[in-house]
Design a protein that fits this description.
By secondary structure, the chain is mostly helical. It folds into two domains: 30-238, no CATH class; 252-471, no CATH class. The chain is 83% helix and 0% strand. It is built from 18 helices and no strands. The radius of gyration is 23 Å and the shape is globular.
């Protein structure tokens, strides 16, 4: 009996979505656990003093842009490994991991040089002396863990590039537990240690980074899963041949992340000029949206891995289908979260505050967030698909145009010039995310069509149609 095309397409979409979810759910959980670490630091600092909380917030605001830039660069290792894995090239996988570790230490050194002495900048900004002290000491404590966290990211991308996403989830859970104990010990002064306040959270985070790195390194060196890769393990000096490819993919990717985060940070700063209530309502809504964003972000990583594997094996037909199926899956997931925002916004906001004026604005912004949930899902899913093809330069330019060229100016015009306030500024966020999403999807469409027009890169057509690759 001949299969109905619609049923066949739905069956294929269901299969691909299931494979992406299997790969992506551990990544999503790991992302949420990392957010929980930051949440725990903030809550515990808030129980010490307002100066500790302010110092932690300022230090985090300085740390995140630097960290995200380096994170984006090192994430290039995942894409390279996923394509090499699809091509069955074990020796090159090991070589890229070693070179990635060299690069991670260079990036750690650069990060330390940027962040180790923030006092001159903070003094110029006019913060109180105690807040500056806390922020500076917190960042210096955090610097001790940077070599470990960047090396951990490389080993994490090695595992994820091979489609092993669970180790990072388990180690992140371990890290959260140790972080809570470390904060309790060092921030409040228990078990014979002095009470360091928010600075103790910096030392605790550094300790967690070193322990997480040690555990993942031991796993990579001992697990039978990596036996074939350890056969090629040897000391090698930094090699520009490999580093150039990582940087070619990674630098635009890092700045692409920074452009998106920068738009949200600048909008937050502008909304702060409308007063404490406006800032509080905005912070509540953006925090809720950030948590739900972890779901498509995890799926985006899974999409990039699967597209990379398909591309590496020469199967561009599957790469195209996996990418578009993944983008659609992200939109479906964000449609669910958007529906929740629209149906019960008061209940969600009620967990954060009882102040009526703050609640009113937060609910209005949550309705706006429901709109950009769809745009956010589309843009991050498409960005993951493009990363799987090692395409990061054009997406970076698209992000700069969408976020800095359109989103930010529109937010300013609607918020200040046309006096729509925070709600108008969120229209700018929606516009930036929507334009980025459309451009990234369009770019993926163009690239995959080009690949399909190169038959010598493809497997036989009957193989593509009859066999669902287990990517």
């Amino acid at each position: 009996m001949r299969e109905i095309p619609l049923f066949s397409n739905l069956k294929r979409f269901g299969y691909e979505s299931l494979q992406t979810l299997k790969l992506g759910i551990p990544v999503i959980i790991a992302q949420l656990l990392e957010v929980m670490m930051q949440f725990v630091d903030t809550v515990m600092a808030g129980h010490i003093s307002s100066n500790d909380l302010a110092g932690l917030a300022i230090a985090t605001a300085l740390y995140h842009p630097v960290f995200l830039l380096m994170l984006g660069i090192l994430f290039a290792v995942r894409v390279i490994i996923s394509q090499l894995y699809g091509a069955g090239n074990s020796s090159e996988i090991t070589a890229n991991v070693i070179q990635g570790l060299w690069l991670s230490q260079a990036l750690a050194l650069i990060s330390i040089c940027i962040l180790v002495y923030p006092e001159p900048v903070l003094n110029l900004m006019g913060y109180e002396s105690e807040v500056i002290r806390v922020a500076g000491e917190y960042l210096r404590a955090l610097c001790w863990g940077m070599p470990a966290v960047y090396a951990y990211i490389v080993l994490r991308t090695f595992n994820e590039g091979l489609s092993y996403t669970r180790p990072n989830m388990y180690i992140s859970l371990l890290g959260l537990g140790i972080n809570i104990i470390g904060n309790y010990t060092l921030m409040f002064g228990h078990f014979g240690f002095p009470a360091l306040g928010a600075v103790g959270a910096g030392w605790s985070t550094s300790l967690v980074h070193w322990l997480m790195f040690a555990v993942l390194l031991a796993y990579c060196l001992k697990s039978t899963l990596f036996k074939s890769y350890r056969n090629y393990l040897s000391f090698k000096k930094p090699a520009w041949f490999y580093l150039r490819e990582i940087l070619r993919i990674g630098i635009p990717n890092g700045f692409s992340l920074t452009a998106e985060v920068g738009m949200f940070a600048m909008v937050s700063l502008m909304i702060g000029t409308f007063g404490a209530s406006a800032m509080s309502g905005h912070q509540i809504a953006i925090n809720i949206a950030s948590v739900t964003f972890m779901v498509p972000l995890g799926l985006s990583i899974a999409i990039s891995i699967r597209v990379g594997r398909a591309k590496g094996s020469g199967n561009s037909t599957d790469a195209r289908y996996i990418g578009f199926a993944g983008i659609f899956l992200c939109i479906i997931v964000m449609t669910v979260t958007a529906s929740i925002f629209i149906l019960v916004p008061e209940h969600i906001v009620g967990f954060y505050t009882y102040e009526e004026n703050v609640q009113t604005l937060a609910v209005q912004l949550l309705y706006m967030a429901a709109i950009f949930q769809l745009s956010d899902g589309m843009q991050v899913g498409a960005l993951g698909a493009l990363r799987g093809l090692k395409d990061t330069r054009v997406p970076f330019l698209a992000n700069v145009l969408a976020y800095c060229g359109i989103g930010l100016p529109l937010a300013y015009l609607l918020g200040f010039h046309f006096q729509f306030g925070p709600v108008g500024m969120w229209v700018g966020l929606i516009a930036g995310l929507s334009i980025a999403g459309v451009m990234h999807c369009w770019r993926f469409q163009i690239l995959t069509r080009r690949l399909l027009n190169l038959p010598f890169l493809e497997k036989p057509a009957d193989h593509q149609i009859t066999k669902l690759a287990h990517y």
